[in-house]
Amino acid sequence: MFFKxxxxxxxxxxxxxxxxxxSSIPGVSAAPNPISTNAKASALIDVESGRLLxxxxxxxxxxxxxxxxxxxxxxxxxxxxxxxxxxxxKRAVGKEGSSIYLQLGEEMSLSNxxxxxxxxxxxxxxTAIAEHVGxxxxxxxxxxxxxxxxxxxxxxxxxxxxxxxxxxxxxxANDLAKLTAYALKNDVFAEIVSTRVKKVPNPHxxxxxxxxxxxxxxxxxxxxxxxxxxxxxxxxxxxxxxxTRQGQQLAAVTINDGDDWADHRKMxxxxxxxxxxxxxxxxxQPIAGYPYAAGQTFKYPLEKQETVQSRLVLxxxxxxxxxxxxxxxxxxxxxxxxxxxxxxxxxxSSRLQLPASSQRxxxxxxxxxxxxxxxxxxxxHQSILKVLGALFGHYQ
Length: 396
Prior knowledge:
Blueprint lengths: L1 H10 L4 E9 L16 E6 L5 E5 L11 H12 L5 E3 L2 H4 L13 E3 H10 L3 H12 L2 H14 L22 H12 L2 H7 L3 E4 L8 E4 L4 H4 L3 E7 L7 E8 L2 E8 L4 H15 L2 E5 L10 E3 L3 E4 L5 E8 L5 H4 L2 E9 L2 E10 L12 H34 L4
Antiparallel strand pairs: 1-14, 2-3, 2-10, 4-5, 6-7, 8-9, 9-10, 11-13, 12-16, 14-15, 15-16
Helix pairs in contact: 2-4, 2-5, 4-5, 5-6
GO molecular function, one term: serine-type D-Ala-D-Ala carboxypeptidase activity
Protein name: D-alanyl-D-alanine carboxypeptidase
Keywords: Carboxypeptidase, Cell shape, Cell wall biogenesis/degradation, Hydrolase, Peptidoglycan synthesis, Protease, Signal
């Protein structure tokens, strides 16, 4: 909607466009050597920019097994309350496949159940989460498909929250790459998928549950920080992995790949080598020749031969955005297509002092970290009450 408005304003002559020249990455090299994998479909994405760096058969819809749970997790995080206690239903307990062995009626905080979902790929956890957050499994699947549409995932459709084979349940390598890039920008999601081992309070025994992450990339690849494994007899091996090096995060996707660990190492190495993240603007950086400064930092992965053009678009003084403090946009174009833009403000504007992370995002992560502690204290409190009740004859 915003860009449509910009186009209308531009057609009326209310914007002034000035070419600021071009910028390129120093050095000359041959185009990146092509890579290949053993997968039926694969993709590699730069998380910050969302640029697809590599894709093979990337738009083909396929079965994706437990890679489904990437969407399950992000929808639950965005729609659920992390401190809520999720009660396990009969439907959840009876779910076949991988499990964290929840018992009928067992309660666990949503935060800890998300660990069971993503580290151990619990289908019982997926079902319990879906019923709690969506009101029913079917209601939650509706939220999943709404999110897919919002993100523009045109080759994706969900039928369940766990990924067990079902006709009409599918996604593509490119769509999963885009979904993963979106999810990894959520601090709660990123913290869960990067965890190697998680201890969770056990209401049935004296010892805690211990969930060890199935994602071997966390141990075998430098900088690895996620994301999810998957397998069914029909989808075969599926994997999404992510890694961060020198401030750049990449995510790799393979579907139906018999040598996925090796392929992911190769894909990530290739991406870091050939498409390093370049900082094209710093927040607060003055724009030469104008009394303005960039309102945000902007980074983009570029191959050494690629040339980027920058363009300044100034707002008319009568526009609403100008009256709110924005003076225009600083845009970047690559091969004739716009790859990004940041607002510009007057040098010294108070808008330049606003934090990069919202207070709500910071609060959400803090609540998430406290959730398991609260659950542990609650279980301890219940145990004490049971002992006191037994001693004094009041416990029923």
